[in-house]
Amino acid sequence: TQTNPFNHSGTEQAEKLPTTPRLIKTHLPVQFVPQSFWEQRCRIIYVARNAKDNVVSYFHFSRMNSALPEPGDWSTYLQEFMEGKRTFGSWYDHVNSWWEKKETYSNLHYMFYEGLIEDCGREIDRLCFFLGLSPSVEEKERV
Q1: Are 81 and 6 in contact, with CB atoms under 8 Å apart?
Q2: Cβ neighbours of residue 118 under 8 Å, at least 6 residues apart?
Q3: What local confidence, expressed as pLDDT, does residue 142 receive?
Q4: Which is the catalytic residue, given 27, 60, 94, 109?
Q5: Domain positions in the chain
Q6: In contact, 88 and 4? CB cutoff 8 Å
Q7: pTM of the model
């Protein structure tokens, strides 16, 4: 199995948020999401993380994970990341295609990892509004 380069883009943080039991975690680019998700109007939460933090995190993860090819030196790794030559393609295309999809698909909540870190309470409130949830203060504090 290969690990996705977007593994450190914030999905771990999103898993801690108050969602329903039917949660599917994926790092798929928007074009690989099954058509049935769109047809059934599934609610989708997309967490984007800035490119710099994403590439640094994945570089170090690649160095520690023996299941992945050796990432090589930082300069080469960074250049390949910027050119979209890492596994699963361009980070830029990934985040931009999801950003564009939210313009035409109202059941897509696009959030930023940095927003979760900066003001988790605000992001929880926004997410709960999107999901139609009314968690208690205690539940929000647990998150």
Answers
A1: no
A2: none
A3: 87
A4: 27
A5: 11-19+26-142
A6: yes
A7: 0.77
Q: Report pLDDT for 109.
A: 96
Q: What pLDDT, on a 0 to 100 scale, did the predictor assign at position 20? A: 53
Give the pLDDT confidence score for residue 1 in this predicted structure: 38
The CA distance from 119 to 50, in Å, is 16
94 is catalytic: no
Confidence of residue 41 (pLDDT cuts 50, 70, 90): very high
Q: For residue 3, is pLDDT > 50? A: no
Residue 22, both tokens: 């039917």
Q: Which residue has the tokens 């203060």?
A: 137
Nearest-angstrom CA–CA distance, 9 and 116: 12
User: Looking at domain 11-19+26-142, does it have CATH number 3.40.50.300?
Assistant: yes
Residue 38 to residue 124: CA distance in whole angstroms: 24
Q: Can you name the residues that pair with 10 across neighbouring β-strands?
A: none
